[in-house]
């Protein structure tokens, strides 16, 4: 069973999507989706525990070895990201099962295909299949974004589709250049062939530059990030919660390509410009947080702010920085998703006032407490996970070039976020509603309440388990920053030797 473990996170949602397409009844689709996503949580937890022994698990589809066949590669990073995807997917699907899925057709199969794209992108060992899983993920997200209809979603969907089509075209051009220059698209083989003579270094450099442009477009780096707050805030609450991990796909892909292929041979490709633009992204997002007029828009700006913070790390090529970034990535993804779900249930309780920052019927007590916990977690107040993640990042980024600028921006943005959350919380929860209509009657569906509380509780739980999680992040970063072990693990020592002799 362990042999086939790497492909299970892709097969489970794919099989669920096929079953749901065969079943017309919405109830059947809900049951299949929830069972499949719960199973995905169990399987990815098991895979994460397996991967913690430090060994690479290579799964060659059709028994064709790398670099000739399609391979899935499971290391600590890939396993942990699939687990994070599964947890997020389960919470979002549970929320959607309370009625959001009734607003359009084919929600459940598309949701499962979105999970296929996400988990496949984290597990694949070659760039062509990364492109394929990107496209699966994006095709599903186009329709999920429009689920429920409305002018705002239609407008957001058009710009989202156009930008991602441009990104897909650039991705294909980059892959064509890489294959034409180096004769392979397997990541480990690319890293190996870059060390050999005989290729055109200028073309290889151009191809990787295009590839990085695609990754930072997905991640939301300024000036390619104007679409993100508008698109995410227009999506339905459970869709936006799942979208919270999509920016991380680009960031993880960038971290992996930088560590395995670029650091040994093209170490200067990310120098200067990436850190500068990441700082600009953090500043831009902080002002966006300050000007947001409703909770879902604030959540979208927070997702962009976390993406800018994480994009400070790939250019450093440092295991300690990467470890801190991975801890912060988990915290920020769960907190961003929790804000989207919380905005949905608060809007449901406040009637016409919805989640706008203005006077209206106050949310129930448990929603007020949930907002306070989530705000404290996101603002980085001790002892929550946001404080620990930022402290780890600030500690490790202190000694890097531009460390002073990074410190100043991160501290200032944290202060701005704290002010915005305090102000918006007062408007949303405690401002008297003298002229507002009474709150809608009826309780919030248990699925929505459970899903929201699950993600809100993640912040305190991450803080309680901070020591083992930080240790896992350090082991993950050390494995990520060892490209030789990755190349030998995927290609095998004999294959690497034969390729070297063939090239000579």
UniProtKB/TrEMBL annotation:
Query: Could you tell me which residue ranges the NADH:quinone oxidoreductase/Mrp antiporter transmembrane domain spans?
Result: 125-410
Membrane spanning residue stretches: 6-24, 31-50, 70-95, 107-124, 130-148, 160-182, 202-227, 239-261, 273-290, 297-315, 321-346, 366-384, 404-422
The record gives the membrane topology as: Multi-pass membrane protein
Keywords associated with the record: Cell membrane, Membrane, Transmembrane, Transmembrane helix
The protein's location, in the record's own words, is: Cell membrane; Membrane
What GO MF terms are annotated? NADH dehydrogenase (ubiquinone) activity
State the Pfam families in the record.
Proton_antipo_M
GO CC, alphabetical: plasma membrane
Coiled coil spans: none
InterPro entries hit by this protein: CPA3_Na-H_Antiporter_D, NADH_UbQ_OxRdtase, ND/Mrp_TM
Question: Which GO terms fall under biological process for this protein?
Answer: ATP synthesis coupled electron transport
Q: Does the keyword Aminoacyl-tRNA synthetase apply?
A: no
Report the sequence similarity comment from the record: Belongs to the CPA3 antiporters (TC 2.A.63) subunit D family.
Q: Which named protein is this?
A: Monovalent cation/H+ antiporter subunit D
Q: Which organism is it from?
A: Candidatus Accumulibacter cognatus
């Amino acid at each position: 069973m362990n042999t086939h473990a790497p492909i299970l996170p892709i097969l489970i949602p794919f099989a669920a999507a096929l079953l749901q397409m065969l079943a017309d009844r919405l109830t059947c689709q809900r049951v299949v989706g929830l069972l499949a996503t719960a199973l995905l949580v169990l399987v990815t937890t098991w895979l994460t525990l397996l991967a913690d022994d430090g060994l690479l698990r290579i799964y060659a589809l059709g028994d064709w070895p790398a670099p000739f066949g399609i391979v899935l590669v499971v290391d600590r990073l890939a396993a942990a990201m699939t687990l994070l995807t599964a947890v997020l997917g389960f919470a979002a699907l549970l929320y959607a099962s309370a009625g959001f899925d009734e607003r359009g057709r084919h929600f459940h199969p598309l949701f499962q295909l979105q999970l296929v794209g996400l988990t496949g992108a984290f597990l694949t060992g070659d760039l062509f299949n990364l492109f394929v899983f990107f496209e699966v993920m994006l095709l599903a997200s186009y329709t999920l974004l429009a689920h429920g209809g409305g002018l705002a979603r239609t407008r957001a969907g058009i710009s989202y589709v156009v930008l991602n089509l441009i990104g897909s075209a650039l991705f294909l051009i980059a892959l064509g250049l890489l294959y034409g220059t180096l004769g392979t698209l397997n990541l480990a083989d690319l890293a190996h062939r870059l060390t050999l003579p005989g290729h055109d270094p200028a073309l290889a450099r151009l191809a990787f530059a295009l590839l990085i442009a695609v990754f930072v477009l997905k991640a939301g780096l300024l000036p390619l990030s104007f679409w993100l707050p508008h698109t995410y805030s227009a999506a339905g609450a459970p869709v936006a919660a799942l979208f919270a991990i999509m920016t991380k796909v680009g960031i993880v892909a960038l971290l992996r390509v930088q560590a395995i292929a670029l650091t040994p041979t093209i170490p200067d490709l990310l120098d200067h410009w990436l850190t500068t633009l990441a700082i600009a992204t953090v500043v831009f997002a902080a002002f966006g947080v300050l000007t947001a007029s409703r909770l879902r828009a604030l959540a979208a700006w927070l997702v962009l702010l976390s993406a800018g913070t994480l994009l400070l790390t790939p250019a450093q090529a440092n295991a300690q920085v990467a470890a801190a970034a991975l801890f912060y990535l988990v915290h920020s993804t769960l907190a961003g998703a929790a804000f989207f779900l919380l905005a949905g249930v608060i809007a449901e309780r406040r009637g016409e006032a919805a989640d706008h920052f203005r006077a209206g019927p106050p949310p129930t007590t448990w929603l007020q407490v949930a907002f306070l916990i989530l705000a404290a977690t996101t603002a980085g107040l001790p002892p929550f996970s946001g404080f620990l993640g930022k402290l780890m990042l600030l500690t490790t980024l202190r000694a890097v070039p531009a460390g002073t600028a990074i410190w100043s921006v991160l501290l200032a943005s944290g202060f701005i976020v704290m002010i915005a959350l305090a102000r918006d919380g007062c408007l949303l929860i405690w401002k008297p509603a003298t002229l507002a209509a009474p709150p809608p009657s009826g309780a919030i569906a248990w699925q929505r309440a459970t899903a929201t509380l699950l993600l809100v509780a993640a912040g305190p739980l991450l803080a309680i388990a901070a020591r083992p999680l930080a240790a896992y992040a350090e082991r993950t970063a050390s494995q990520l920053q060892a490209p030789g072990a990755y190349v030998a693990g995927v290609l095998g020592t004999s294959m690497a030797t034969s390729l070297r002799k063939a090239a000579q």
